[in-house]
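In line with agreed milestones, work has continued on tokenised descriptions of protein folds. One protein thus recorded appears below exactly as we store it:

>
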Amino acid sequence: MKVLVIGSGGREHAIVRQFHQSPSVTEVFAVPGNDGMNEEATCVALSPLDFSALVQLVKREKITFTFVGPEQPLSEGIVDYFEAEGLSIFGPTQAAAELEGSKAYAKDVMQRYGIPTAFYEVFDEVEPALVYIKKHGAPIVIKADGLAAGKGVVVAMTEAEAEEAVRSMLDGQRFGDASARIVIEEFLEGEEFSLLAFVHDGHIIPMPIAQDHKRAYDGDLGPNTGGMGAYCPVPHLPDGLAETALESIVSKTVQAMTEEGRPFTGILYAGLIATNEGPKVIEFNTRFGDPETQVVLPKLQNDFGRLIVDLLEGERPEVKWDNLSHVGVVVAAEGYPDEPVKGQLLPDLHKLSGVSVFHAGTVRDGDAESDRYRGSGGRLLVVSAAAESHEAASDLAYAALSSVDWPSCFYRKDIGWRARK
């Protein structure tokens, strides 16, 4: 079979690689892809939002199915467009993707169906929002309602920080239309973790839980980012936590979306927190996370292409995962997440032994003879290692990273530190 992957980041590189390694898949296409995928996929320079051109590509190349990586095409209705053309695609419809596209909608669904989450209110004007903050105090969480590339959340530790966040979102349009409306919610104490699942026709296949690090610097300090690294599994979390979350949150959400008239197909990502009252929802995504994908998906032992086809055809395949620990570290450009440096020549990545490299913000060096890369974004790549224990996987990843120089780059030195405590 032939597969098309929509997207260009590290998450999509992991998806492309998993399909490339699938015995049933003969060819992988990526739109637009990135230079690091070229040996595993045919990259096609189209916009992920040019649905008409994508449909023409699928029909011309006789592609079996399409797998959508990023949130924007889902929120703009790529699944509906493809299905209207009679094409097979794995992802939620535009209506179902609102579970990620609108935090206010997601919170309303959770409230209606008794899915545990932080208490909240929704605002589109500054003054009522400030009154609410004054009433509840800090710490408190302010979120842009719409899509903001994973950066639309401010965890305000003081009322002054909260007020600044509210004004910059509602008055200053910090995130454009995405922050024309905001959600203000209770600050929850506990440890965060991610539970992802394949979903189709009410059938749920959970993946092993993962944990990522959002803060830019060691010790979970600095600004929030799209994620500076991740690891899977998460050995120090209590036994039974994943099962409880699956039952009380994921299953109830899938059922709720069906009852809402928005049945869910695709990847449901539950960003959760383990509180004293049990797991609660921080946010939902309607696609794979980044960088969690780079440590969760390589654990899959099934033929990935066959698995997706089986799900789309209504089968309920048995899924197997490896018993290894996977640790992935993001290498980012200096200045990320605000103003990342671009154009720096990266080290020879072939010298990184015993690890996997997933490209995100990189481009081939301009020299035609070169197999080196330059930075072209904020998060450049993920270096991931797998081993029998978390400590061994972490040691492998960091040994590889420290074996070369990373000019105008940085990475956290403590990914997975909670698992070492």
About this structure: The two ends are 45 Å apart (CA to CA).
